[in-house]
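Researcher: Here's my situation. A collaborator sent me these components and asked whether they could plausibly form a single complex. I don't have experimental data yet, so a predicted model of the whole assembly would be a useful starting point for our discussion.
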Amino acid sequence: MAAAASAAACFVFTPWAFVGDARSGLAWTFAGRWLIALPILASILAAVLARGGYATARLRVACAAFGLFWLFAYGFFPIGQPSLALGFGAAVVGAALVWQGARALAAAGAFKADRWVATTTVSIFAAVVLFVLFPVVQALLAAFFDRTGAFDPMLAFQRFTARDIWATDCFYSDRSCGVVLNSFLLGALAGLLSTLLGLAFALLAQRGGLKNTRIFDALSILPIITPPFVIAMALVVLFGRTGVITTLLDTYFFIPRSRWIYGLPGVLIAQVLSQTPLSYMILRGALQGIAPSLEEAAQTLRASRWRTFSTVTWPLLRPAVAASILLGFVESLADFGNPVVLGGSFEVLSTKIYFAVAGAQNDPGRAAILALILLAMTLSAFWTQSMWLGKQSFVTVTGKGDNGLPPPLPKNVRRAALGVVIPWVILTIVLYGVIAVGGFVTDIGRGAMTPTFKHFMTGFSIESTNSGLFFSGSAWDSFFVTVGVAALAAPITTLIGILTAYVLSRHNFIGREAFEFVTMLAFAIPGTVIGVAYIAAFNTPPIEIAGTGLILVICFVFRNMPVGVRAGLAALSQIDKSLDEASTTLGAGTGTTVWRVILPLLKHAIVATLVFSFVHAMTAVSAIVFLVTARYNMATAYIVNRVDAGEYPLAIAYSSLLILFMLLVVVSIQLLVGERKLGRRGAVASPVTLGAR
Amino acid sequence: MTRAASVRFVNVSKLYGGVRAVNDVSFEVEAGTLVTLLGPSGCGKTTTLRLVAGLERASSGKIFIGDEDVTALGAAERDVSMVFQSYALFPHMNVLENVMYGPLASGVKQADAQILAREKLALLGLSGFESRLPSELSGGQQQRVAVARAIVLEPRVLLFDEPLSNLDARLRRKVRDEIRELQQRLGLTVLYVTHDQQEALAVSDKVIVMDNAVIAQEGAPEELYERPCSRFLADFIGESNLIDGIFHFEGGRTMFVANGVSIPVGDVRVPPDARTIALRPDRIRLRKAASSLIEVRRRVYLGHAWEYTLAAPFGEILTITPIREEALAIGQKVELDIDAGAAIPLMR
Ligand SMILES: Nc1ncnc2c1ncn2[C@@H]1O[C@H](COP(=O)(O)OP(=O)(O)O)[C@@H](O)[C@H]1O
Ligand SMILES: [Mg+2]
């Protein structure tokens, strides 16, 4: 009743369209678009029928479904009229219909007749369909249409079989390979190398007999707060043609300058650098999960140290190793920031998609084919992982058991591990050193090391004028937009993610699998694909939000939502179901139970999700490079543009400021909440959740 | 308490997928009585209890609380409270907040809820613990908080799911008696689940024994112990020696013949097709008899009694003899004397 009433009020009084014409729905109705009124009539009819209770429940579901269908159908095909972008009035009517439909479903007996669960689930489902499924499907369909919008499967076939996608020339000539092979090669190498390194780190930290492994943990939090291309920038500064180290080698060792860093080697190093800490966390967790008593048992059976390692420890570790390799592969496929800075003529899928849309070509059909291929590769990786992990669950079976002492590493393994870890740690420290120093000298990329504040002045100067402070630096706009968008998206992401986790872990209903699938879909879709999908789907009515700040917020909410779902699911699995049931038998409805029992117990998962979605929103590149505009620019996009223009010092200065800002946010929230382990042990730090970048 | 109501199950079944967890069960718990659901693990006790609470919906059949048909009502709408096996105390709320939760959830004002809660905490001897967190209490105290939380709304029916299983042996007996005392003092209707037959016999007005999703037998504790109606029950409640054979009437005396051994079973009413008897170990007396086919195989000292394992042609028999009687040597041949009415003829 209340839903229909507010929908009716908005229909009569508030603007129906998103921009421009401020006429209300009612005004449009009398301006000749009487079909626009059908959804609100459906809503009112459903409200009237609500008196019938169970008897009219199915009818009401049909009413709401028709209303929603009509809202969008008329939005897409406004018979004989120019189309309107749906705005506030339409949004309220749509929301009311979703609400009424959900309640009617519950009244009809679905969702175990629980209205709260019905409303929550249906609302989230509708939002995910609208903002994930719809744009992705629509964008991918573009592969089958030509520029005039005519269906053309032959063209799709030509696009699909294009030489620059599948070529294998690089094996037998000096021409380059196709993007698929490039991406696959890069992904496989990145996955393997980062896992090897992560394994070395984990073994040393857990078994290496080192007194202090804090530095490992400190290094492992860095990639979370580092925008993905920052490492690439630092690499250019060190190893580029005029780079610091290149110059040293040239001057003292007569090694000629070259551009080797641009291409596969550079991108690979950058990706391995940002992926290794994640592998480290996965593998260290797995090592901690292996009960030392198992290894002690092997030793009492007269197995040598090496034999124990190779017959007990390693087999138990293998599933985590596989998971880490696959995650590295997927992350590498999704990465856009590093290839765009360091790729040179080495093209991968994510950059190719970007240039198919953003470059001179502007060919959505080509972008769609590439996106389809990228999506297929990512999904196969996830599928492989779930098949593999489904069969190998013994690591979790032996879960806890911290009795006994883990045996130290065999000597040669330890030596080998130290041999790779020490140079790697030094490289990491030097790279972050470059970021820290680079902003304060004239041009670190050319070896000009005169101290200066020039770059910070350009980007971040503040003038005191008569009318108060004036943020005159060129970077302020993007900084404020970034912080604003991230701060707005984080709570929404958390709310939707945690509620989804609650519904998934505690309630069983018809369609649960479908619900789980669509909510996790955003997780598997690479950011570049989402970006392409959003500009394709939301650039025209009925939903025309491209170019606004709203699309940025929505993009982050649905990109990062799976982080919240994972965190929530992990935390909920620790909370016994009898707590919910106790609350219910004491007369509390589902809403009260969630509010008073579940959410307080999920405090840490909630805070962690808030922090992570905030940080992810600030560091993301791949999806938003498509969505930013001059008015709504984001920090990362701004920096990538500076790099493109060769303004490395300003880019570095900005990056260091961003990292510092996020470090402050993370640390102060940690202090505030008193959660020391945030970001390491917390559910959110689990490997898979972090993959959502 | 006058709000106590009866519970009635009429042909209730509960299916999980294809598994019948509760199969066509009918019973009644009279208002103000304590009834236990007893049975081996996995027989459907918890499911039955959850059906009463409304945490599960019956697949078929009807459930009444008092005169009201509650089959279609959810847990929040039924006037039933439950003490969970794990206690399910809210870990983020202190004792007082835990107990106040029910009243607040059903719209009682903060101040009144606090009065109600303090009253029940006092009743359970928990005054002074109001501001402790559940994690700061002992197992027994947690259990009492769970009970206080469950009775604060004066529910029409109170449910316990294995309330003693998380307590140590010594405490179990004390808490068991406290629960019974509280139930009788407040006149509560209580349905109590346990797999421990001693516990069931000790606290109940009526015991309902479940086996394999159906009710095997129900009745007062002594009725179940004295007259079990099946092999399963004879063995499950107390210990029994189960012997197969046939009844035989000999000069006005009833004998039970198993593998050529005649056992005088005294005066019992024998159903026509009875083929088995159950003998309680403590109702068998042993008499030395050199010509007997039965001999002592093992002897165990129990402190208050001797436990003998006898070898007979039809199998082994366990007996318990008071310690004050003379100990029998291993290999001693004995005859059995059965107390009048102590042999229980069984059909299945
Ligand atoms: N949620 C459930 N899903 C499927 N089967 C269940 C579920 N709960 C109980 N069961 C099955 O129902 C039977 C009875 O379970 P339960 O009532 O818990 O037994 P009890 O409490 O007597 O040990 C068992 O076989 C159990 O496996
Ligand atoms: Mg049970």
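Model: Some features of this prediction you could bring to your collaborator: Residues B 16, 19, 21, 39, 41-47 surround adenosine-5'-diphosphate (ligand 1) (CB under 6 Å). The first strand of chain A starts at residue 441 and ends at 443.
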